[in-house]
Each structure stands twice: as structure tokens, then as C-alpha cells.
Amino acid sequence: MKSLITLTASLLLSAQLFAQTNTATPDAGYNLDFERVSAGRSLPDNWEIFFHETIYKDDYKYDTDTKEKHGGKYSLLIEQTKSTDARSFMSIKQVIPAKYAGKQLEFKAWLKFEGVEDFMGLLIRADDIRGNVLDFRSMQGQKINGTGDWKQYSLKFNIPQYAQNISVAAILKGAGKLWVDDAQILIDGDDISKAKTKPDYDPNAIAYGYNKAASGTVKLKDATLYYETYGKGEPLLLLHGNSQEIYAFNFQIKDLARKYKVIAVDTRGQGKSTDETTGPLSYDLFADDMKQLLDSLHIKKTNILGWSDGGNTGLIMAIKYPSYVNKLAVMGANLFPTNEALPDKVLEQVKAQLATYKLSNQPKAKMQARLFTMLLEEPHLTFDDVRKIKSPVLVLAGQDDLILEKHTRAIADAIPKAKLVIFKGATHYAPVEIPKVFNETVLNFIDR
Q: Which of 104, 230, 310, 332 is the least crowded, having the fewest Cβ atoms under 10 Å away?
């Protein structure tokens, strides 16, 4: 069963199901009653098969059925016709946009099954814009098998805040037959056809960090930096945090690019950037990388927004390469990695995770070990260092940041004429938690 959990948790599942005995409820065009079947299709319109390995496809029959149905003319049938792998399963899915404003999604369907040896049931999955799983629910734990007549089944889950798509599906694991008919999706108890939509949902949203049309690379002597550019105007360099990538600024880039030429970069060894070195990493090295990136793009002066590690790099750039920095905003930055800057609990957590990475020989784990070692050993800045900064600086942090508030305030006090903003109720992840307020704060500072 553990193998199936792994398999099903990686599905891009879907389905929109339920209606009533003879007449399906409105479904916003999702064909939840399975009555629309285009010529040449074996499955009802809008529905697709899912299988983890191509061998599973040949293990099953998937089709519309005109003989056995709950209502209307058609039902959806999944049947195992042969077994080539004990892990085999078949899932029929449909994907809907996560454009609905409600908090809870309920997926209902009428199911009939015959001779099911393992289990059958419903699934729901939410993905972000990159297709990464945000949440997953299934009926696997109910272990429904054997034979059963038509019955309505239901599955609920809370819609993740940053979901781009929601997939619903029916699944048959192992031998047997499964019929699916008259389905319904409810948003906060109302049929999906009546659900309110989010005013800011963008069906064509860009997966930042994965946009080839906006991408470029810069080859350094011992690394290749991947970057993406958006918008026009003064340059604005975005620097992400430890073990992150460009996508960390998913909720900033669109707003910032309305006024500025945003250059979002993956730091060496992270995201799509490479690193050919094996020694210790440092923020000075990252700052040198960014200088070379700017030189290659013929940018002599830029604004910078740095988050966490990116903030540390931004501070070093303002000290080492002052002519390159116009205005600098740093979120959750620190000058040194001691309990004067971070709580002991956070430092212990980093040490524990580092020990785990050191046990692995995988290349990714080795890179993570280097990055976490840097967290414990870097940066090596002093308050006298940041007093040398001439650029206007905005120092940002969450009220419940990983960085101690007294340290954040001390940084702002040390930098000449720096502005300090502590986001009430936010943490180290304010750019994600309160993007609108965060973006407005940064733009007001740079626009000034």
C-alpha cells in the first residue's frame, strides 16, 4: 500500500462529479454527468486517463458504458483486463482551475463496483502553478473493495491558498470493475456553477523560474547563473533565500515588473544555476557572482530586493560594490550567525538538518549541506561594516521572523538613514504571507 501512496500522491488527478438520479446539476461546463461524448473518444469529454507507468495503461479498459449507468445515457467505466504489475492502477481525471473563492471543495460521485480486490474510490489534488503538489486527499484509507451497488460517495478538502489547478478523479487499484456517474463539485456547499470566483485568478499565470521565454544564462569561470527578466524601466535585481529559487518571488515579480525591469536570478547551485566548486560557500562569493551578472548584462547600477540570504548578499554588495547599488531593500537579513541574531532553537534546527544532509551521498544533499553550513558560518559582517553603506536602505522583517527583532532593529539603526518596517503578524515569509502589503512597501521605497 505504501507504494500506491507514493504513486497516487504524484498524480495530476482530476474529475468533476455528481448530480442526481436522472438529471445532473449544472456543472459550469465540466461534463460531470458524463453525457457529452465526442465522436472518436472512448472517454466522456473533458476526462482523461492517468497512469503512473505506461504498462498500466494496457492493464485496464477505460470507456463510456451505455448499459450500466446511474442516470442519463452514459457512465464511465474502468476495468482491469489483465495484470502485469502488482502496483497497477487506473485513474480517470479532470482538472479544473482553482479560480473559486471558497475555502472548501467537496467532490461527490455515484459509484458502482464489482470484484474489486484492492480498493476503489475518489481523489482530490491541488497543484501550484509549477505542478507541485500543495495538498492531496483520497479514499484509500477506507479500503473499499468487493462488490457494491450504486452509492453516492463524498470527499472534502480545504482549497490551498496558492492553488492554480485542482484535480479530481476516480481510481481503481488492482482487479475489478468501477463505474462512475452523476458527479458534482461543491464549493463551500454550493454547486460549482454557482460558486463565486477570485477576482485576481490568472489562468495564464507565469511559472516564474520556469519561463524559457524570459530566461538567460551567464557563464562564470566556475558556475552558470540562470536568470529571467520582466518589465521595463530601472533595473531591479531580486535575490532569493537559502535553498530557494526565482519562484520564491512568485507573488512579487508581476507587481514589481509594472514599473521596473526585474532581473530575478537563481543563486549558484540553486534553482537552475550550477556550481562547479566543492568548497565552502559564502555571501561574498554570491555578491561577486551578482557583480559579474550585472556586468554581463551591461547594468552599471541597480535597485536590489534581497530576501533572507539574498538580503545578506545585498548588504555585502552595497559595501563591496557601492557604485552598483542604487536602492536596497532587505527582508529578514542578518549580519552574523550567532544567538545575538537568531534564536538558539533556529540554530539547533539548522544543525540537525545539516547532520541529516551529511549522511547522504546524493549530489543534491551535498549541495544542501554546503548551503546549511553557510547558514551556521556566514555572514561575517559587523555594524561598522554596514555603517559604510551610502545607498538608501529599507530593512524589513516579520514580527515573528526567524531573525531576532532586536537584531533587525540594530541593523536599521546602524545603516545611515535606513528605513525600518516590521510587518505585524508576519514571519520570515512575509513576501508569501502578505504579498500585497509587502509589494506596496517595497515599491513605495524604491519609487521615492
A: 104
